[in-house]
Amino acid sequence: MSLTARYLEERGIPTVIMGSAKDIVEHCGVPRFVFTDFPLGNSAGKPNDAISQAETLELALKVLERAPGPRTTVQSPQRWSDDAEWKLDFQNVERIPKEEIKRRRAEFDKIKEIGQKVRDDTVAAKKH
Amino acid sequence: MAKSENVLNFLQPHDLPVPYMQRLRDYYLALGYGNPYRWAQYADVPFTEIKQSLSKLRVGLITTAGPLKKNAGDQGPGAAYNAAAKFYEVYSAPSDEDRFLGISHLGYDRKYTTAEDINSFFPLKALRRAAENGRIGEVSPRFYGIPTNRSQLTTIEQDCGDVLTLLQKDKVEAAVIAAN
Questions:
Q1: What is the pLDDT of residues B57-112, one digit of tens each?
Q2: In chain B, whose CA is at the least distance from the CA of A71?
Q3: Cβ of A92: how many Cβ atoms within 10 Å?
Q4: Residue B16 DSSP code
């Protein structure tokens, strides 16, 4: 995502990223970024809220046209909720019981295997 | 600080942008995986200025959401992480049609959101409206889907070039990239 923005920009296409993982995007360094401080999966606005979605896109368009230079981040003023508890929950090992960690390890091994197979199949299909 | 002392109405101390890099690093180390993921990191950042009013430009939408894959399990709202739904090639589809796109192959926050509303992660409808209102010139004839490949080399050497080719073919003049 961030790499794509950089690549396109280098080749003359202006971009703006809409996203919620501020540290990851800024770590990479991108031209323009609208940061929406929501749980991952809602970079375009709140679900079932057309106004939130329209305002998020409008902010992205403003940033696209007015950013003074690279690494421009603008944070959306929208709040997910008054309670910020969700920020402490996401993949926080301090909040996951040991047994659950073990279960997730087994699950993730399976996920990796499936992902690898999809990737291998894609590569194989390309060769034929 | 007790609640009653918060006369200046400060936020709670943990109400900051989530430190995802640290979280994910700690998470996968706790799961027993060594060799933590190295996130992309650069000093120089390219920048291309917008040379015309947006109301005259053709804008393209780029997404990490994926099309429905046959025989790949649940990809809809609330689906568990679904690696079978992953895709490893750039794709495109007409932007004047509504279709299912899912994010079950991505690590979104499954506790606090369900991906039930495509418009919360794929702003095509809002972009179309922006075109109708004259805010942008037009929506490019296709939108573009990019894989989230763990290999950054593949992203740069394969996927980025593929999406650039499509954008150039469609004469896209600016791109909105919706992350997930």
A1: 999 999 999 999 999 999 999 999 988 999 999 999 999 999 999 999 999 999 99
A2: B45
A3: 13
A4: S
Mean predicted confidence (pLDDT) in A76-102: 94
The tally of CA atoms less than 13 A away on the side-chain side of residue A96 is 19
Distance CA A24, CA B35 (A): 18
- Residue corresponding to tokens 């640290």: B22
**Distance of alpha carbon A101 from alpha carbon A87, whole angstroms:** 19
> Does A128 have pLDDT greater than 80?
no
Residue in chain B nearest A62 by alpha carbon: B54
Q: Which helix (H) or strand (E) holds A125?
A: helix A98-127
How far apart are alpha carbons A28 and A54 in whole angstroms? 27
Cβ contact A48–B111 (<8 Å): no
Chain A segment 63-92 residues within 8 A of B by beta carbon are 64-65, 67, 69-71, 80, 84, 86-92
**What value of ipTM does the predicted structure carry?**
0.94
Check B54 against A21: CB less than 8 A apart: no
Measure A66 CA to nearest chain B CA, in Å. 8
